[in-house]
Structures are given as C-alpha cells and as structure tokens.
Specification:
The chain has helices spanning 9-20, 25-32, 38-44, 49-55, 60-71, and strands spanning 77-83, 95-96, 98-106, 112-121, 127-128, 134-136, 139-143, 149-153, 158-161, 175-180, 185-199, 204-215, 224-225, 232-233, 240-242, 245-251, 262-267, 272-277, 286-290, 293-299, 304-311, 318-326, 335-341, 344-349, 353-358, 364-369, 389-395. It has 407 residues and is mainly β. This is F-box domain-containing protein.
Length: 407
C-alpha cells in the first residue's frame, strides 16, 4: 500500500512497523537509522520503543555510529555563531538577547545552503560577546567575554550553562573542549589567573596560573583542579583538543613578551602537562583539528599561510608542512582551516569569509561571505547588522546529550 500525505498517523506507524519487520533490528538501527539526520530521527522516536531507546541514547554504539556516518556527509558543514563585537573602548562588552547557531553548506557549484538551527533568547540581555566557540561531535562550547560558558547541541536544541569556575583576575579567556577517549566523556578545560602583574622597571610579567577540568554528565557537576601549567598560558589563541589531549599556547619562562611561542600539551588520561613544540606558534597563527590531526595555520606573510600537520603518536610531536597557500587579499586577523573535502580545504578568513583551496591546482576562491548569508533566508528574518563578528567552526550533527552519559 502506498503512503500518502493523507494517510492517518496510526496507519503510517503500522506500515512502517510491518516494513521494518522484514529487516533485522541491528541492521535497521546501525545501517538505516544511523544515516538519517537528527531532525528526522527526533520525529521517529514515536514509531516504536526500540527506536526511541536508540535515538534517546540508551545504546551508546548507535550514537557513535551516527556521528561516524555524519562526518562522511558531503559537502562538509560549517557552524556560524555571529555575535556583536566588543565595544570600541575595549573595557565594555556588547550584550545581546540572542545567540544564533547557523549551519552553512557549500557544494561544488555556486549554491549555498544556510539554515538557522537554533536561536537562544535571553530576556535580560545576558549574552555578551562570544570569544572563539569550540566544536566536538555536534556539541559547541561557547565562551563569552564576561566569562560565562554555554554548551549547546544545535541539532537536539539542548543547552547547558556551565557553573562558574575558579575566580580569575582576567575574564573571558579561551576554553578548551573535546572528547576524552580514556574515560569516554566530553570535557572542558580552562586556565585562570590567580595573579598577573608587570614588574616595574624590568618590563616583565609575572603570573600564577591555574588549570581545571569540567566533565559533562558527571555526577559531580563542578570544575576539578589539576596540576598548574608549568608556563604562562596565553589564551589569545584558541586551544584545541585532539587525540586525547588539550593543546594550549604558552610562553616559556618569564613573560616579558606576552606573545605565544610554544605549544603546551595537557594529556587527559593522566592529567599531565608537557611541552609539545617550541618556537612554532606566532600571535597570528591558529590551531585546529584537520582530519583527526593537530593542525597549525602559520601566517607566513600578509597573504601567505602555511598549513602544518602534527604526528604525535610517538614520544614527541613531529610536524610537516602540508600546504602553502597564497590568499586573494591580505589577512587582517587570522586564517582557520575548517575541513578537508577531497583535495580541497575550507578556510575561514578574518571571521567573515569562507574560502576553498585546491591542493591540485593551488587555486583559492571565495565561496561564502558569512556577512551576506542572512540574504539566504529569503526574507524570513531581518538582515543581521553588518558589524557582526562571525565565528565559524567545523560542524557535524549528532545525538550526543549534554546532560547524560550516552557516549
């Protein structure tokens, strides 16, 4: 019997159940349901109890399988988190009632697909300027300039405000976020400054830096202290999590020059710090994960960017240059590699424009101006202000829950 839009819901469920009965349950879940977008899966929860249990995270294998298959979807997705910039006097902070999460896709042609996945509304203008969101397995950690931290799954529309961490003499510093394979949990980490001062007459900076970790879904919903970092951590470059470790930029010794130069590795398994690379990081460089490997985009010149990849399987971190790119115009702030699609790299430049770089032809082309993406809503929403900053992160949708251990 053919199912039409006029088929009663009860009959639809009976027909779906009879069709599913011909397919083994394990194949139906792991090979069919796991390939379906989250929005559809949330509607399918009412079909039967076994589907509801899998979709709600009772089977961790299904959640992981869905993530693995979502990573293979083409073209790769980007999540854009636009926000008001900080005020001109740099002491104030822009405040907004909304925090938006917009998914952007760009295929091989000129077509661009944009979707507003979630808009969080605060009646009290609670949201301050966003500082470098971090993505992992469909979850997005959003730090704000005021020091508040929010974790969101835009696909399931689940949001969690993390509790305050230890007091710090500097607010709004970068926060690391990622998956810890040794404990099968998602963790956030933050550095905080107990003391930070400039020694008069010597031109050097002295500080007392702490480090703490928060585990999502843990019984104890609080930040747990770790050993202090051995060096002065410079949080102006977004830290990254890959292969069971957080990577922070740091200055070895007394920080007379506060620009980052070293890479500090925090192992999540044994919670120890180690120096991963010396003299590699510059103040206009960015860190990210690319193809499961630690990646550094090094600003060689005003228009030249070198993409370095790390191999840290051994006792030390070995780096190799994967791409040397010449952009179409000078870089004002930074270049952030977002995703690899075949022989092409998707890059976010100056928190506004998305570029694609072809490794085969060495050509660079502009594909999306995120400032113009509101036009793709076809009048459904008013245009966003042109002064917005656009934080782009690589994105894959998932069913991972923020408040439950279902990993």
């Amino acid at each position: 019997m053919t199912v039409t839009p006029h088929t009663p819901p009860a009959k639809r469920r009976r027909l779906a159940s009879s069709a599913a009965a011909a397919i083994p349950e394990d194949i139906l879940v792991t090979e069919v349901l796991a390939r379906i977008p989250v929005r559809s899966l949330l509607r399918f929860r009412s079909v039967c109890r076994s589907w509801r249990a899998a979709i709600d995270g009772a089977d961790p294998r299904f959640v992981r399988r869905h993530i693995e298959l979502s990573r293979g979807w083409a073209p790769p997705c980007v999540l854009d988190v636009p926000c008001e910039p900080r005020l001109e006097d740099h002491w104030g902070e822009a405040r907004s009632k909304e925090m938006e999460f917009r998914r952007i896709r760009h295929g091989g042609d000129a077509a661009v697909d944009a979707e507003l996945m979630l808009a969080l509304v605060s009646p009290a203008n609670r949201f301050t300027a966003v500082t470098d969101p971090v993505h992992c397995d469909g979850l997005v950690l959003v730090p704000t300039a005021s020091g508040e931290l929010f974790v969101c799954n835009p696909a399931t529309r689940e949001v969690l405000a993390l509790p305050p961490g230890s007091p710090s003499v500097m607010r709004g510093r970068a926060v690391a976020f990622g998956f810890d394979p040794s404990s099968n949990t998602y963790k956030a980490a933050r550095v905080f400054y107990r003391r930070l001062e400039v020694v008069e007459g010597e031109g050097v900076m002295e500080c007392d830096v702490g480090h703490e970790v928060f585990t999502l879904g843990a019984a104890a919903s609080s930040w747990e202290p770790t050993d202090d970092p051995p060096y002065y951590v410079v949080a102006q470059i977004r830290p990254i999590c890959t292969r069971g470790a957080f990577y922070w930029t740091a200055v070895v010794g007394r920080a007379g020059d506060p620009r980052p130069t070293e890479l500090l590795r925090f192992c999540l398994r044994d919670e120890t710090f180690a120096l991963a690379a010396e003299g590699l990081i510059g103040d206009r460089d960015t860190l990210t994960e690319l193809g499961g490997r630690l990646c550094c985009a090094h600003a060689r010149t005003a228009t030249g960017v070198d993409i370095w990849l790390a191999d840290d399987d051994g006792p030390s971190t070995e780096w190799s240059m994967a791409h040397r790119i010449e952009l179409l115009r000078p870089v004002v702030h930074s270049v952030l590699p977002l995703a690899a699609d075949g022989d092409e790299l998707l890059l976010s430049v100056d928190r506004r424009v998305l570029y694609k770089y072809s490794a085969a032809s060495k050509a660079v082309r502009e594909v999306v101006d995120m400032q113009r993406v509101p036009d793709l809503y076809y009048g459904a929403r008013p245009p966003l202000p042109l002064r917005l900053v656009h934080h782009a992160v690589p994105y894959v949708e998932s069913l991972v829950s923020i408040t439950r251990r279902n990993y």
